Amino acid sequence: MPHEPLKIFISAVTSELGKARDALAADLRARGHEVTIQSDFQQSPDSETLLGLLADYIHDCHVVICIVGKRAGAHPPIRAAEGYPKVLPAGIKEASYTQWEFFFARHFKRRPYVYIARGDYSPDQAGVSGDRSTLQHAFRDHLKSENVHYGPFSNVDQLARAVLRDLPELAAKPPPKPLPAAKPIVLPYRSIGSRFKGRDAFMDRCAGA
Q1: What is the CA radius of gyration of the chain?
Q2: pLDDT tens figures, 85-113
């Protein structure tokens, strides 16, 4: 049975997992769902408003998919993070954007679906400066300590299969939109006026012939 379209956010570090994220997003969009990633907000990572935009969107979405690798990625300005003092759990003083996206999902009671790249996953780009691998290692340790369920994957196909297995409602295409009501067709001709009026007697004779 078809399901209604869902509002989905996919979180991933672009330099490492951008291709997997984009392939999954394209698949889910083809099924009729509304899918958003961080770069859709057209805000620089240094912008103080990006974290707020992410919080607002995740608050209202149906599904948050977190694709986790070895890199933490960019992190928000300190002033932006100070606006959400109750989101990060005790013991975590700093988080990257992708980590914030996970914590926002939990804070707003939107269960995050987590998928962790295996060691044999090939990153999109070679190691980049400032990827904060130590911060990401601490985040992965936190996920394990919280017994967060996750699906491991080694490539794009495995990721897609894992997501559709965990969320079967994403697999079915939503019902088609109803067609607009048919409008009467008005032909661009002048009215025939009174040309066929006054023929009642003639028509009666034809009917009685």
Answers
A1: 28
A2: 999 998 899 999 999 999 999 999 998 99
